[in-house]
Request: fold
Amino acid sequence: MKKRILALDLGARRIGVAISDPLGITAQGLQTIVRQNMRGDLEALQKLARQYEIGMVLLGEPLNMSGHAGVQAQKAEAFGAQLERRLGVRVELWDERLTTAEAQRVLKSSGVSLEKRKAAVDRLSAVILLQSYLDRVEAPAI
Reply:
């Protein structure tokens, strides 16, 4: 059985978290971590990594629409480097452009109330991020 992938949608206030199934085919939302400080954030993620036997972390890279890395992407890279040192697993950055917009669209179209959407959007963004990665990386060659 493969080790699982932990996906993170890193925000200023919250971190959306998703995980791959044991076979690496589908993504499921876990939770949303309310950010405290770097130490607390890393401890919460380390606990999840141990609990789910993580083999890799997929971190959303918030590129500008032009595809260039801006200030937020640099913050994600720095967070990823600290996370990699702390967990001892590879952290891969993955283009997260439009994942939040897609998550909001899905939640709105499903009739979820605005208050519940706010709580769920980060987790769903992480799910969309991870599923796009799994679909791209695990797709069979044709």
The chain has one domain: 4-137.
